[in-house]
Amino acid sequence: MKDQICYDDYQKTASWLLSQTQHRPKVAIICGSGLGMLADALKCQDSFPYSDIPGFPQSTVQGHAGRLVFGELKGKTCVCMQGRFHMYEGHSLCKTTFPVRVFKLLGVETLIVTNAAGSLADSYQVGDIMIIKDHINFPGLAGLNPLNGPNDEKFGPRFPPMSGVYDKDLRKIAFDLCKSMGVSQFIQEGVYCMVGGPNFESIAEARLLHRLGVDAVGMSTAPEVVVATHCGMRVFGLSLITNKVVKSYNDTESVNHEAVLEVSKLRSQTLQMLVTELVSRMDINNNTT
Ligand SMILES: O=P(O)(O)O[C@H]1O[C@H](CO)[C@@H](O)[C@H]1O
After folding, report:
1. Residues contacting 156, CB < 8 A, separation 6+
2. Where along the chain is a purine D-ribonucleoside bound (predicted)?
3. Rounded to two decimals, what is the model's pTM?
């Protein structure tokens, strides 16, 4: 796939998908590391390996199956990415966010992002679910932004605002749902920070992030949210806390990707239920073909 992607490229992929499935999704879900089971809840599935989809990048990370799944969650049509693309895999940021613009052209109005993340907040426990309130996009602040390059007004404005992008109403609905599901004790709300990865943080870096007010850190999500916001989508995000980030020189523990995937399994059912119920309460009308 070439580095500069133009409107026609997104359009070609979207047209191909529309010709292969009857589903017309209004909601897109991006599954984080080890969270691909979110797609298992979809009924009447049509699924496509990324390798079969014209123009789609390929997943290379363990815990990211590389499949696009269309289907219904409680009667609401969704499309779900079982596997996302990360900058550290060597993709340009416009490639990592390619699916988001394709979703826009499919008619998607709401993007749900999920990720595995390490916690900086002292009060968080492994297994907590953090409703994302805001993000710090470190690569973005350093000039690595998926919106770099000529702006395509068909998608959105040159200078999009990024305040209040994690939808307040959806966050409130999610909180209320967690109460009624009896899982409030492990629900948090906080700030997600994207770092470039692929290495986990050094102790000095962890301390820096902690001082900056970061609650959870990961290596994804922010570029997808930037692109979704640019093209006018509503955004909701969840981080599953898979590890505590090591902040002390006395700490002998260290994190690894296998441990991240293990914890993802632990909370998979709760996450699936939360996302399903949230989608079912969304005010969206299903289109049919
Ligand atoms: O953000 P997701 O895709 O959930 O993955 C997270 O898990 C991996 C590290 O274990 C990194 O890719 C990090 O970003």
Report:
1. 230, 231, 232
2. 201, 243
3. 0.96
